[in-house]
Each structure stands twice: as structure tokens, then as C-alpha cells.
Amino acid sequence: MSKFIKSIRGMHDVLPDDSHRWQSFEAVIRQLMASYGYREIRMPLVESTDLFCRSIGEVTDIVEKEMYTFDDRNGDKLTLRPEGTASCVRAGIQNGLLHNQIQRLWYSGPMFRHERPQKGRYRQFHQFGVEVYGIDTPDIDAELILIGARLWKQLGLQGIRLELNTLGSNQARTEYKQVLVDYLDQHRDVLDEDSLRRLKSNPLRILDSKNPAMKQMLDDAPALMDHLDDESRQQFAKLIASLDAAGIEYTINPRLVRGLDYYCKTVFEWVTDELGAQGTICAGGRYDGLVEQLGGKATPAVGFALGMERILALLESQQQQQAETIDVYMVLLGESSEIKGLQLAEEIREQAPTLKMIAHCGGGSIKSQMKKADKSGAEIAIILAETELENKQVTVKYLREKKEQIAVSFDNLSEFIGSLKIS
Ligand code: ATP
Ligand code: MG
Q1: Is the pLDDT of residue 253 over 60?
Q2: How does DSSP assign 186-223, residue by residue?
Q3: Residue 281 near residue 127 (C-beta atoms within 8 A)
Q4: For 190-202, what is each residue's pLDDT tens digit?
């Protein structure tokens, strides 16, 4: 026998017992986005490698070591998208969606990063992301945070904290970078290998380090907050006033710098303590320079992305998960009943399109079919055998309630189903 081929490490099937959880989550997202007037955009899973190098930044974890990059048959360098923002900006520029326009957009779908797989960290994972173009004021930053808060509420999730920071304008950040580099340079002996490398290429990222040996030194480092430009300072104050007015709680975390190069001004993360090391479930911020950097006309932009697997894990840990069930199981005994049964089932579906009904296929005894009906979670079984067929009726058996079984004529069946109020 040939060797069994398994899925790629860190890339998982969504099995039928779980897919309904994804579907309800996705339905909440769709409805929520419509309620804020955001529209969906769908981008390809594969893009030119350059797109990610130029946007995310050469010296980031993603570009340095996490991308799935390959040569296609023409010899072009392509990459499976590791995130959605770069593609969204590319699509916006290419299709003329951005210049002098306001766009409120969302997307969702698989992303790919070659990371060490563990709980909440996969090589194929899914993000729901939101991007807004053409608004440079912090009211829209606040709206994005309100969207997050409403999403947690609609999903019934608790204990999700908001961390906030501002990175300042690009110019303020450049000036601060020099101050930081001078400080870090004096503490080279404490810097680990990664940080020494980043000292030249991406010093801000050193602040993000989780290395405990560097913690004290980083705590004492000059803070970006103290080097902000006036405009960023005012914008941050307005954002905070909006959040206060809306009753949103937050912590200001001056060390929050985010892993991607393109952020400026507002950055934020939603975090939970319930998922261990993979506690960031949603992250975002402003990226005013990126559209121009990718060849478009300068356009302000702000967005966030959340990890769908992490949200689903949180839902699972906080809620009693209900299995997906159906409403009606049709038990069909004998060849003529099987033929008539399919026809009746179609008539019922015509009348009640949202009813969830399985018409039994494949024959078998009444005992084995009733067992399947029970296991399916159906509220009622509709039984059709020779006698019923002769009398042009079905037997309705209640599987979850203590009620006598009844006979319903073929003619009244749709009406009977309509009266059930199950779906
Ligand atoms: P982390 O610090 O956990 O690696 P990140 O900063 O790389 O996250 P982003 O690029 O900001 O993450 O992506 C946004 C969100 O996508 C994260 O907050 C997280 O919820 C989710 N995410 C990122 N990488 C993965 C992954 N490999 N598997 C599952 N979810 C992920
Ligand atoms: Mg990461």
C-alpha cells in the first residue's frame, strides 16, 4: 500500500463538527461590517514577493524568516500572502480605489507564515481584517476600536483588554530612533544577537523584544511618548477622548511598537490572558506612508487584523459549545418509500427552505435508521413505510419531547412542517 499523505505541518482541515462555528463567526463579521457601512474586498492568495518586502519591511520576522516564497514557472518570485494589508493597498492602487476617495473595506481568508506551529500559531491561519483609506483624523481610529469592542460583545467574549500607543509622525519617529540608538549603543553588552543586528536595521523593534535579560534595560530606555510631534500628540489625545466618551477601557503601553514597518501614529492590540503566549487576538494601527511607498498617491490609512483561530479558541474556552444539529430526519423503509420520500422531501424544502432536513439514503432497518435520526439531533423523525405509503401519509415521531406520534397526510405535510417553528 502506498504511504498515506498527511496535511502540511501547521496547516489544518476545518472538520464538519467545527465548520458551523466558523460559519457563525463569519456571519457575525459580515453583519457587523454591513452595520458600519464597510464593504468586502477579496484579494488573491499569491502576490509578487516584492510587494511584501517593500511594505512589511526587509528586517521583520515575516520577511526575514516566515514567508512561503517560490519561483513560478516563468521564474517570477511569488509569495503566499502572510497578511492582507499589503495586498489590499496594492489592489486599491491598481484599481483606482484610493485617490481622493474614502474606502471602508474588510476582508477575510487564509494567510501563510512559516512559523513554529503551536497552539494559536499555525502556518496557514485565517485573518479578518479591516482597512480604511482617505481619512487622516483620529475619529476613524476610534471607530476601528469601537468595531473591535462591538465584535467581542456580539460574540459574547469577555476579558479582552485594549493596549494602545502612538508611534508619532514618521519624522518624529526618525528623530526618536537616533535617541534610542544612542541609548542602546551604550548598553550593547545586554543586547542579544537579534537586537544587535536590529540596532542598525530596525532599532524600534528591539523595544518589542520578549527577552527577559533585556527587560530592565528596555524599561529604562527613553520613551517614544516623550519625543512626539505636536500633531501626533493632539491626535492621540482626541482618540483617547473618543474612547473615554464611548466607555472603552484601555491601557497605554509605550512599548507597543508592532512587528511591521509600515505603522505610524496610532497602534493598538487587543489581548487576552486566556490563550497563553498567543494572547494577541487582534492588532492594528495607522499606516499613512504605505500607499505612497507602494507607488500610489499619498493616502492616509488605518486598519486592523484579527486571528480567527485565536478568537475561535477563546469562544471555545468561554462558552458551552453546542453541536450543530438538524431539525428533521426522514426515515424511509422499502424501495417505493425511498422514491416517494425524496419527492416529499423536495416539496418540503420548497415550502421551508431554512428547515434542516436529512432524507435517509442507503436503506437499512427501522432500528438502524431511528438510531441515526437520534444521533443527528433532529427534533422529529418523519417515517414512511409500506403502510404509510398505502394511506398516503407519514408517521411523525417526536424524538426530544414526550408527545404521542401522529399521522400526517401527504397533502398536509408542508403545512405541518411550517407549523413546527423549528427554523
Ligand atoms: P504574534 O506576535 O502573535 O506573532 P503578529 O504581530 O505577527 O502576532 P499580525 O501580523 O499583527 O500578528 O497579525 C494579526 C493577528 O493575526 C495577530 O494578532 C494574531 O491574532 C493573528 N496571527 C498572526 N500570526 C498568526 C499565526 N501564525 N497563527 C495564528 N494566528 C496568527
Ligand atoms: Mg508573528
Answers
A1: yes
A2: HTGGG--HHHHHHHHH-GGGGGG---GGGHHHHHTSPP
A3: no
A4: 999 989 988 888 8
Task: Tell me how far CA of residue 91 lies from CA of 63, 84, 112, 295, in angstroms.
Answer: 20, 11, 19, 12
Closest residue by Cα to residue 266 from 231, 300, 239, 299:
239
Q: What is the pTM of this model?
A: 0.89
Nearest ligand to residue 115 Cα = 1
Q: How far is the CA of 389 from the centre of ligand 2 (A)?
A: 62
* Ligand 1 pocket residues where CB is under 6 Å: 83, 113, 115, 120-122, 125, 127, 259, 278, 280-283, 305-307, 309-310
C-alpha cell at 398: 417526536
Output the CA 37–ligand 1 centroid distance in Å. Answer: 26
Residue pair 129/82 in contact (Cβ under 8 Å)? The answer is: no
Q: What is the pLDDT of residues 270-312, one digit of tens each?
A: 999 999 988 999 999 999 999 999 999 999 999 999 999 999 9
> Helices 85-94 and 49-56: crossing angle, nearest 10°?
110
What DSSP line would sit under 225-290, residue for residue? GGG--HHHHHHHHHHHHHHHHTT---EE-TT---SSTT-EEEEEEEE-STTTT--EEEEEEE-TTH
B/e letters for 197-231, b = 16+ CB within 10 Å, e = fewer, are ebbeebbbbbbebeeeebeebbeebebbbebbbee
β-sheet bridge partners, residue 79:
47, 69
**Residue 409 main-chain phi, psi, to 5 deg:** -70, 155
81 CA distance to ligand 2 middle (Å): 14
Written as nine digits, the cell of 16 is 464538519
Ligand 1, atom nearest to 279 Cα: 3
Give the position of cell 530592565.
216
